[in-house]
Known about the structure:
The complex is a heterodimer of chains A (368) and B (494). With 368 residues, chain A is mostly helical. Chain A is built from 15 helices and no strands. Chain B folds into 3 domains: 18-124, no CATH class; 153-267, no CATH class; 283-446, no CATH class.
Amino acid sequence: MATFASSSTxxxxxxxxxxxxxxxxxxxxxxxxxxxxxxxxxxxIAIGILSQLNLLILSKWFSxxxxxxxxxxxxxxxxxxxVRLFVIAxxxxxxxxxxxNTLGYVQMVHTFIFPSMDNKWLILSIFLVGCYVAxxxxxxxxxxxxxxxxxxxxxxxxxxxxxxxPEASLYDLYPLVPTDWSIGPWKSWLALWSSxxxxxxxxxxxxWLSPQQKIRKYxxxxxxxxxxxxxxxxxxxxxxxxxxxxxxxNFPVVHMGRYLQSPVIERIDTILLSIHMFNYVFAIAILLxxxxxxxxxxxxxxxxxxxxxxxxxxCLVILICMFIxxxxxxxxxxxxxxxxxxxxxxxxxxxxLIPVFLLLAIKRKGAV
Amino acid sequence: MFWKKGKRGNNDRKDKPQNATQTAVTLDxxxxxxxxxxxxxxxxxxxxxxxxITLVYIRTLIDQERLNESVMEPLTHCSHDTIHECIAxxxxxxxxxxxEAKKQLVQGSxxxxxxxxxxxxxxxxxxxxxxxxxxxxxxxxxxxxxxxxSEQIEKNITLIRRRLPITALKTEKFTIGSLSQTTVVLMYIxxxxxxxxxxxxxxxxxxxxxxxxxxxxxxxxxxxDHIHSIFPQFQETDRPDACAYSLGLGKLxxxxxxxxxxxxxxxxxxxxxxxxxxxxxxWIVASFFRCIRYLSFVLAVTLIPLYVALTTHHYQMIPLEIxxxxxxxxxxxxxxxxxxxxLMLMTLEVIKEASLRMPTKSGQTLGVIGGIVIGQATVxxxxxxxxLIVLVGxxxxxxxxxxxxxxxxxxxxxxxxxLVLSAILGVFGIALGGIAVLAxxxxxTSLKQPYFAPVTPFYRxxxxxxxxxxxxxxxKTRPEYVSPLQKWRSNRRR
Lengths: 368, 494
């Protein structure tokens, strides 16, 4: 089987799970610390609606004939040379996404599970498993999202007891309406918008997704699930920590997990955090394949057989980048990490720009 | 993925000299290739009319009683001129070449030379050496049919045909193995089984190029899509009811001569956790026990690794009440948790393997000795903690709950894999291992059909017979992963 063989196409349920899992990667664990105030519940819903509009624009692309043609559709739209330029520009967000998500997750594992372990081993182990998943090919990696979703989606249910007293302090949920109507810290809105990013990467997978007339429905469902998860976890962390303490801690969702009680074992956050890795491995694998595919397009080898050397080289490049960022640039002690902020900006940028850009392009061609 | 697939079979290499096999059969020719075969017989008899007839056969392969009754007696009392008039048997075949003669002889026929017509005839008189129909030794159930397959392929076909008395049930015969000349029968229901699966199976069987096959599992190894996987991609069963059920779902059955185990394909990983009894019990009861089986599999592969992870890396996860017991139990041990668990699991595997290979009575003794060694002596000697002994016991029993023996064996390997990972990376390592195993399962196929269906790919309707066994009344459609030609199981909706 070839890496990018597309012998079968995947139905809407995969779109739902992929969009949802790509949206909730790293941000689900850090988002509450950016939102802090209870009235930001409305912020999540508002941005969720905005994201929905963005997904509607994206669905226009998926319903077009260009999307069904995959790479050739892009070439028809922009021409081969321009597509290559776009692909070169796209390499950086993909690379950054992999690096930030992996290092962010490793930082959490390092903080909560293995404080004395060298990060390098954690990075290597997660990345190798991601490479293994990706080595099974794009079709199998897309299918892996089912496993990722089923393995991780139930975790939020464990936070249900935190909604009730004595753990929950209902007063922390107020004021639901802001006392002053200033726009608030811009970073909260940036983080929020960025936390809905991820679905734009689906444009790299159009070959594998069946021609979707109902894609709007699936994208809407995925977005709604994400909004629900964000609201749910934000309210849980508000009720549990209160806005003042929430403002002061890193990784509030993981911290909440530390207080979950189990009759058999304690500190089940260790298990939950480990299981949450399924999402990261899925994201690493799919982005890794996008990266490898992009490199093949740039080198003009798209129509040639994939090779082990090429795949391993792509993996090595990403791994080296990750080690370099971790060694010299990743500041794990700072509460607001430069790379996370950069990822937020870039995520927000790509999520805003790509759907609109594609819509304008197909409008220009008169296909819509 | 990146490996270039080599050619499995070698159909191009039909390099046998054609002339030798096409030579006309003669008595001298037969004598030549029967030389040095003590059990080969060449005898002559005379009919009532005085005609001499030569009989050639291999004594050990034929039924002597039937030879006397069906051939010798009629021949000696026959007043006709030709053999086929003398012997009133339907299984009289005219043979012309040496190759045919050889094939007939080794399959238990006798050759008769009709000098008047200068023709050779073969009468099939194979000695039906076989045990009777017994109950299944590997897939025991309380309710349901007791019969199981034996080593005789024809008898096995009969057992399936009696359960599916329809003409749409087709049987195709293949001969594989240059030395063993093993007969493989491919069974399917025409108009129900997807023709792609049938042609795929045919091409895989035709491509087999090997010398001998002594068991059906060997045939499976040659047809599997992923030969390096630890998971079986063909389900082996000796139960005709399981085969009939699978045929009814649109699957294929491969019966191999001289082995009591049939192969079922395409299968999923989850099929290996299903017992025929699941469909005979009340659905809630059956679902409960099916869930227990899945849980047991998870327990079998993760319990000991979890112990190692917790005692090596995550002491904080152990409740205070248990940690004092554990610390007391482990305080005088000379080994780290990993080596303690590794040695105990290795001992257990040695005992399990030995008790399987030993004669039944010795096996029981070994079990008792093993129990004492594991349960008492190791704790007394200070080699293992009491907690680990309990966990090893639970883990060992849990591993036997999976109905498929091959999965039980595979689970042992996964357990050791997780054990190593847990020693290095604790719970995080087990999760890493879990992802790797699930990704591996996700990539497997059985006869080109997804092995991890209906989870991936996601077939919503098939979930009714996945973790739970839904009421039969609700199971109206055949599994999607089999892609049957007839989706509905009831006659009203086809």
